[in-house]
Design a protein that fits this description.
mainly beta; elongated
Length: 407
């Protein structure tokens, strides 16, 4: 056997040393690489980094697609998920106001509970979880349509006003409405103290709200007109968003007896004044029923031609006039009637109270009543030979039963 030279021995020892070093590195790397192993040795990788990083199988979808423009304000927005369950959906407009909605179908979908505003940019953020609890999220932005044709609602009473117990909240729309349910849903009436308030349509352009009985004195009413973006008729959208309040004052109801030619003024159920009156003469009888004051005029002109009576009268300075119907029924001062007050019916359908020309005397019945009345007070006429006033003739929905009102 040949002896091994020193050089060869050194080379072999060097290779063995490298092999040992390489082996140590492998062991070291193996020890660092599997840091999630609990030492059980089951080899299943439980709790490993690979398990934590697995992607959720939940797939969130948002309609309309991100970047869409001209989006309809109703029916277009919907969030859904496949292979998972929605846990959070947040929709905001460009001012940060949230859109209310609900997750339904056991977490399968989300839809808004109201319409969207027109010409508005919205952002959507949706989160879902799969069966393993892993989250997936999706974000989107879109802009709603800018309508070419719009409508608004002209309302009474005015914001901040104090009115009588008979005052409904009445809205006249500038366009005829063919989707009344959508429009009515966008008007919210809240009261303090709480009372059930229902809406009723008169034709296709007027919507009134009232409780079953006259308002309770002191009630505060808040109305949210959220009409912006509501499609009231094909291609015609609301452009109005306003919150207003009004307060109910003291309870004043005045009862006119056409046979007795008297009017009893009650406040909070107690008679505070009995006044002599004249009502409509035969053939021109005053309406029966409950009539709400809608306008007060210190002086006005009354011309028979405007109410279908031709040239029978034209009085340019009627004092202390309070409107009760759209068709022209007033309770007003009368300085030309002589001794008819409390004795006979001589008017063309109005309720007349004794007054002086110019209305300067504050002690006469007409002046007293005018000064003690407010918009929304009620005048009830009974024992007239005419029929009951139509509920839509003025703010006079009280002449409709509650059951019919809610239909």
């Amino acid at each position: 056997m040949r002896p091994v030279s020193g050089a060869s021995a050194r080379g072999r020892r060097g290779r063995r040393g490298l092999a040992l070093i390489a082996g140590s590195l492998v062991l070291s790397l193996a020890a660092c690489g599997g840091g999630g192993d609990s030492g059980t040795g089951d080899g299943k990788g439980k709790g490993t980094g690979e398990g934590r990083g697995a992607q959720s199988t939940a797939a969130v979808s948002i309609a309309p697609k991100s970047g869409a423009t001209g989006v309809d304000t109703s029916g277009a927005l919907k969030v859904s998920v496949a292979k998972g369950e929605l846990t959070e959906v947040t929709v905001k407009d460009e001012k940060g106001a949230k859109v209310q909605g609900a997750i339904t179908g056991g977490g399968a979908s989300w839809t808004p509970s109201t319409h969207l505003a027109a010409a508005t940019r919205y952002t959507v953020h949706a989160v879902a979880k799969d069966s393993e609890g892993r989250e997936a999220a999706e974000d989107s932005t879109f802009t709603t349509l800018t309508p070419k044709n719009t409508f608004v609602g002209n309302f009474t009473p005015e914001d901040g006003s104090t009115v009588g117990v008979g005052m409904p909240f009445s809205v006249h729309f500038t366009r005829g409405i063919t989707s009344p349910a959508a429009v009515e849903k966008a008007i919210h009436v809240k009261t303090e103290p709480a009372v059930d308030v229902e809406g009723h349509w008169f034709g296709n352009d007027r919507l009134d709200f009232r409780p079953e009985k006259y308002w309770k004195a002191g009630t505060k009413v808040t109305v949210d007109l959220d009409l912006d973006g509501v499609e009231g008729r094909d291609g015609v959208y609301g452009k109005q968003r306003k919150t207003l309040t009004f307060t109910i004052g003291r309870n004043q109801v005045s009862v006119v007896d056409a046979k007795k030619h008297t009017m009893k003024v009650t406040q909070d159920g107690k008679v505070v004044k009995t006044l002599p009156v004249t009502t409509g003469k035969p053939g021109y009888d005053t309406w029966n029923g409950q009539m709400v004051m809608s306008e007060k005029l210190a002086v006005t002109r009354m011309n028979g031609e405007t109410v279908g009576y031709g040239g029978e009268y034209d009085i340019k300075d009627v004092p202390h006039a309070i409107r009760l119907t759209t068709s022209g029924t007033f309770i007003h001062g009368n300085y030309w009637g002589g001794d008819v007050f409390g004795n006979s019916n001589a008017s063309h359908g109005c309720v007349g109270l004794r007054d002086v020309r110019g209305g300067y005397d504050g002690s006469v019945p007409a002046a007293w009543f005018f000064n003690h009345s407010m918009i929304g007070d009620v005048v009830v006429v009974k024992n007239s030979d005419d029929r009951t006033v139509s509920p839509d003739n003025g703010l006079n929905g009280w002449n409709m039963s509650w059951a019919d009102w809610k239909k």
